[in-house]
């Protein structure tokens, strides 16, 4: 039995991972925000030294993309300084660190899936702070640091796009949804299983892409949700991103490639539709 420390343990991904680890018989330490301030380097070091984890999985993040535009320094404390503190603590403790990142480290100008080693060029403050966190982990833990980029995450815990669409299907005759942003709807349960496999394996450290396979637009995902509900998917009306102006620019294309999973001898993520259908009973309310 190994000891795992999971930060951000009450979020969509963290809660799925904690439940999975406990079901697997692992010892899990899930410090919440009140127990651990990731921006406090000494507190992070002391907790990791006390817990003595084999693996730390950092699911904690500032994910309010628009708020980060006006509060970049605060977002930096969580998304960059926090991972750096964890990496330093893991280096001292001899623990592996699996740090969750995002497709927002890319510009979104590609037309084919981004490989793990593609050049980064974030468009907004959120992406910049997440990229800084990635670099800190890779610099400090070249032999035991893992970056797992994910996107369009949904799960049983908390609010997410899938649940929102299910609710709006019952409340509105039609729903307008953006149809010019391309990404990969990703099941938190699927990602948790891949994180477990990765951390238990002898896979080389570095960057992995933790999204479900295939691609969709937000409009396409919404239509799939309506279909699962037995509702008419034509009630979902496609619109351009410009119809919903936001403070932070969004990458138009955030589809990620998964070549490193196969290279490491690990199973590749399944298609997003299969994952959504499997997760659906726990999402529809």
TrEMBL record:
SUPFAM superfamilies for this protein: NAD(P)-binding Rossmann-fold domains
Name of the top EC class for this enzyme: oxidoreductase
MF term (GO), any: dTDP-4-dehydrorhamnose reductase activity
CDD domains reported for this sequence: dTDP_HR_like_SDR_e (cd05254)
Keyword annotations from UniProtKB, A to Z: NADP, Oxidoreductase
Pathway in which the depicted protein is active: Carbohydrate biosynthesis; dTDP-L-rhamnose biosynthesis
Domain called RmlD-like substrate binding: residue spans: 5-278
Domain of life according to the entry: Bacteria
EC code(s) of this entry: 1.1.1.133
NCBIfam families, per the entry: rmlD
Role according to the record: Catalyzes the reduction of dTDP-6-deoxy-L-lyxo-4-hexulose to yield dTDP-L-rhamnose.
This protein's name: dTDP-4-dehydrorhamnose reductase
Organism: Nonomuraea roseola
UniProt gene name: rfbD
């Amino acid at each position: 039995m190994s000891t795992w420390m999971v930060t951000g343990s009450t979020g969509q991904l963290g809660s799925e991972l904690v439940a999975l680890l406990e079901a697997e018989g692992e010892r899990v330490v899930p410090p919440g925000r009140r127990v651990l301030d990731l921006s406090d380097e000494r507190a992070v070091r002391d907790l990791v030294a006390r817990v003595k984890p084999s693996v730390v999985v950092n699911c904690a993040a500032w994910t309010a993309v628009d708020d980060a535009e006006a509060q970049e320094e605060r977002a930096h404390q969580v998304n960059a300084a926090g991972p750096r503190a964890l990496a330093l603590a893991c280096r001292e403790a001899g623990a592996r660190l699996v740090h969750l990142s995002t497709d927002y480290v890319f510009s979104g100008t590609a037309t084919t899936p981004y490989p793990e080693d593609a050049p980064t060029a974030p468009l907004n403050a959120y992406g910049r702070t997440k990229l800084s966190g990635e670099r800190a982990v890779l610099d400090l833990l070249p032999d035991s640091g893992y970056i797992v980029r994910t996107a369009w995450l949904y799960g049983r815990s908390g609010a997410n796009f899938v649940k929102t669409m299910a609710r709006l299907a019952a409340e509105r005759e039609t729903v307008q949804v953006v149809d010019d942003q391309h990404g990969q709807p990703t099941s938190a349960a699927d990602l948790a299983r891949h994180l477990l496999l990765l951390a238990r394996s002898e896979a080389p450290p570095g960057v992995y892409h933790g999204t479900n396979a295939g691609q969709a637009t937000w409009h396409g995902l919404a239509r799939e949700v309506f279909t699962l509900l037995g509702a008419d998917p034509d009630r979902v009306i496609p619109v351009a991103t410009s119809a919903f102006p936001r403070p932070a620019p969004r990458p138009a294309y955030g589809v990620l490639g998964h070549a490193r999973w196969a290279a490491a001898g690990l199973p590749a993520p399944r298609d997003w539709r299969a994952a959504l259908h499997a997760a659906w009973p726990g999402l529809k309310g």
